[in-house]
């Protein structure tokens, strides 16, 4: 994992920030987190979606990003019907970006339309959503979601990111505190997201993601790295990256065939610059790969 390389963006667009990563669990694991979650993370209570299909919990980090743990209520197959995540396997299934202020949807749509990628996916117009937090305060935000692939007409959720923009103060939706970000594993934020794609389509996904994010990739060891930012700036902590990577082994090939293109692993930042601690084993569960990374 690379820490310091030059960063360039297209025009005046701000570098997108990681809003959150979505991790789908069996309902019993959401209600009573298994040891791989409970021993590493503080889990903050969430709630139920307005449509009554999904329940969630949050793992929030000091950098303002979070992992959203979700489950279909009682693992109901009926509730999966017609839901964007209804056909997803358990594990990492999606992620969302954000930017300061509002999303320039027209520019986003134009960049994607003009890019050279043969993968033809674009975004639906932003849709306002809302709920109340546990204290009863109103939460309102917009979600800009992928349209079905123009090429295949398949569901594109997880293949490209969502965009999430707050209409009410962000801390209502992501209420960071010292207590709920003091994780046993020591993680303070997200250092890297790895997008697993077929080797034959790596260049196309790089072009598509460059257009989506409005940034120019940096190439290292044959993989494209796209710069990201975080909602909160932490002193002496580098920006995170999104890395577009093909399969590294036969197991990756099998998982890619089964799960499709999407986020396959997360690197979490542990400690600040110069801080050291005991090495932590990576988390390897169904559809989940989480690594822990110290700064040099």
UniProtKB/TrEMBL annotation:
Residues 18-202 form the Glyoxalase-like domain. This is Glyoxalase-like domain-containing protein. InterPro entries: Glyas_Bleomycin-R_OHBP_Dase (IPR029068), Glyoxalase-like_dom (IPR025870). Signal peptide: none annotated.
